[in-house]
Amino acid sequence: MQFCINWNDLRYVLAIHRGGSLSAAARVLRVNQSTVSRRLAAAETALGSQLFERTGSALLPTDVGKSMVEHAERVERELLSLEERIGGADQPAHGVVRITSVPTLINRLLIPRLPSLIQRYPGLRIEAIAEVRSMPLTQRETDIALRLLRPQAGSAICRRIGTISYAVYAADDKHASDLPWVTYEEGYAHLPQARWVARHHAGTKHIPLTVSDGDSLLRAVQSGIGRGVLPTFVADEVPGLVRLAPGLPILRRDVWLVVHPDLRKTARVSAVLDWLDQVMQTVSSN
After folding, report:
1. Does 286 score more than 80 pLDDT?
2. Residue ranges per domain, the chain?
3. 7-86 has CATH 1.10.10.10 classification
4. 3-state secondary structure of 4
């Protein structure tokens, strides 16, 4: 039997497989769900076989679907390899680069410094995705990731790109000793800054507020609710916040850069990697 299926069809098959649903695939591909459904139906008609079956709320590949996913992943690797070969440093940096990291790094570190990169490479479009979860590069949900924990497995290239320092801050140093602590809620108690508060000041005062993200902690300290452990590159720039004695960083966290090996030498990704190195140099010395 002859059939005709192209890379665009395969992209939709991969996105459905990786996302587990039509809606998840639609978000990754930046189309509406009806388009994903229509493209899946067209691919199944072309093949004469069902590619996915619904199990509960998830779409799981059939045997034919698994074969199609394997084929699509091989095609994807070949296309990425071709892009690397033709996207050398002598080519202008243009196109989309998706960067993911925790909200503090995206919102407080990268976005304020993006104008210099965009001005230098006007053909670039950066997609900055603030996510607490680590988005897998193998599933092509991101091109570059900045992570605060070193990945333990996978084929992606990983290297330490810098460090972030943390210190204790309050809105008023004169009355800081009377302030309670604000820190992370139980689900984030594993964070080094939360562990530091628990270890050094457990039981000293009632904790009136716990939060789930860095921006909320910053706002809480800024409003005078309590004192807290904040990244120096953020808190040092906030008017009214002061480092409490001794004023030195109490801990540091490594920042790990993760990039897909097939993309690292493309012009657009290489330009962003160089920029990230420069950005991290400005904060690692704090």
Report:
1. no
2. 7-86, 97-158+254-284, 164-253
3. yes
4. coil
Fold of the CATH domain 97-158+254-284: D-Maltodextrin-Binding Protein; domain 2 (3.40.190)
3-state secondary structure of 91: coil
DSSP character at residue 235: H
Q: Which helix (H) or strand (E) holds 147?
A: strand 144-147
Statement: residue 6 has pLDDT above 60: yes
Cα distance between residue 113 and residue 126, in whole Å: 12
CATH C-level class of 164-253: alpha beta
pLDDT at 62: 92
Helices vs strands, H then E, count in the chain:
10, 11
Token pair recorded at residue 65: 């679907």
Kind and range of the H or E element at 200? Answer: helix 192-201
* C-alpha torsion angle, residues 265, 267, 268, 269 (rounded to 10): 20
- On the question of a common fold for 7-86 and 164-253, the answer reads no
How confident is the model over 179-234, as pLDDT tens digits?
Answer: 899 999 999 999 999 999 998 876 666 889 999 999 999 999 999 999 999 999 99
For 117, the token pair is 């990169």
Answer for the pair 61, 72: CB distance below 8 angstroms, yes or no. no
Output the CA torsion sign for 154, 160, 164, 165: positive
Give residue 70's pLDDT.
Answer: 84
pLDDT of residue 81: 62
Pairing of strands 228-231, 210-211: unpaired
Whether the CB-CB separation of 285 and 110 falls below 8 Å is answered with: no
